[in-house]
Design brief:
Helix content: 40-55%
CATH topology: Rossmann fold
Strand content: 15-25%
Distance between the termini: 49 Å
Number of domains: 1
Shape: globular
Radius of gyration: 17 Å
Largest sheet: 7 strands, parallel
Strand order of the largest sheet: 3-2-1-4-5-6-7
Order of helices and strands: EHEHEHEHEHEHHHE
CATH class: Alpha Beta
Length: 254
């Protein structure tokens, strides 16, 4: 049984920011489990990339907004830990899975609100709670937030509210889980060129230029700007960091 390597779980790790997080964590010699929503082929390709780095990796299907399915997912997670890694527990939980819905406050529907709430707040809340018995003492929880929890991007009122709630939750987790030496932090990316929100930052040149003009480092963020920070929080070098919000935005809207 393999017992020397740590294990990280990255939700939404098959594409975008989550993919880069998973790859950068694997570069640290940490075994990685990623989840994917629907594209198994894409997820398996990421697993193969990580395995080429000399770590063990696994992809599990997971719909983070489907609350009744959480118990079943945790059961599959336990099986995967045993079968792939010969382990009963894992060390790092990165709550990354999510979507963005752009809708003005006055026009946001209850259905849109509930979709975001389930995926961005309630799902991570209870996934983390259910994972506590199989999360090693001395481990780490990293909740992915957004710059939109600090500054306002019109059309993201519900999204920003959920991310702000996750930042508050992170501080409570840091205090309440501190006795187990479990650290909890928030990483808040700024505007990143991905397919998030329909690819608005990536594909809309006007929006892209506006982001550049309001960012101290003068460009839009890329997925590779984020993954290394998350990977760092999975190392002993970050062992005295807990309860913190780390914004990774290139100095956006300072």
């Amino acid at each position: 049984m393999e017992t020397n390597k740590k294990i990280a779980l990255v939700t939404g790790g098959s594409r975008g920011l989550g993919k880069n997080m998973a790859l950068r964590i694997a570069e640290k010699g940490i075994n990685v489990i990623i989840t994917y929503h629907s594209n198994e082929t894409e997820a398996k390709a990421v697993v193969q990339d990580m395995e080429k780095m000399g770590v063990k990796a696994l992809a599990l299907q997971f719909d983070g907004g489907n609350l009744p399915a959480l118990d079943g997912f945790v059961a599959r997670l336990k099986n995967g830990l045993q079968e792939t890694f010969g382990a009963d527990k894992f060390d790092f939980l990165i709550n990354n899975a999510g979507i963005g819905i752009n809708a003005p406050f006055a026009q946001t529907t209850q259905e849109q609100f509930d979709t975001l709430s389930n995926l961005l707040l309630k799902g991570p809340y209870f996934l983390t709670q259910l994972s506590l018995p199989i999360l090693n003492d001395g481990g780490s929880i990293i909740n992915i937030s957004s710059g939109l929890a600090r500054f306002v991007g019109p059309g993201y009122a519900a999204y920003g509210a959920m991310k702000t709630a996750m930042e508050t939750l992170s501080r409570y987790q840091a205090v309440e889980l501190g006795a187990r030496q479990i650290r909890c932090n928030t990483v808040a990316p700024g505007a990143i060129e991905t397919d998030f929100g329909g690819g608005m930052v990536r594909d809309n040149q006007v929006y892209n230029d506006a982001v550049k003009a309001n960012t101290a480092l003068g460009r839009v963020g890329l997925p590779q700007d984020i993954g290394g920070v998350v990977a760092f929080l999975c190392t002993p070098d970050a062992g005295w960091i807990s309860g913190q919000r780390i914004e990774v935005s290139g100095g956006m809207r300072l």
